[in-house]
Amino acid sequence: MVTTDTPSPPDSPAATPPNEDPGFFPLLVRSVFEPGANSAVILAMNVSFFFLILTLFGLAFLTQWNKHTLFLLGVTTLLWGAMAWFVVEITKVQHRPDNMPPMITEGNDEESAKASGAGEAGTAAIEPKKDK
What we know:
Helices cover 50% and strands 0% of the residues. By secondary structure, it is mainly α. The longest helix has 28 residues, at 67-94. The chain is flat, with a radius of gyration of 28 Å. Residues 1-21, 97-132 are annotated as: Disordered. Keywords: Membrane, Transmembrane, Transmembrane helix.
């Protein structure tokens, strides 16, 4: 008796892949199209800065602590700290509830425009400055 492997139908549970987290590189590529910084971007940034600082430290040792190499080492360390601070701050802003866009319902578009003070044309008149 000869058995052959038949493909399972698409509706069977064996045909659907388990719900897994995407790997590092798919997250890194996806972050290009999404606002903010996900964990893959932060990890790539930290690893890159770590190895850059390690390389500059080795170069500073090999050049007998050349002032130019030490300057580059200091600038790199400050840039890493500034980037880490920026990521923390932008994460705080993204998680604030008042940072969400307002909900727009279909029936209230005209009412909300009138309530905000927009006229028929939707622009406010700008008066020129008078010279003194």
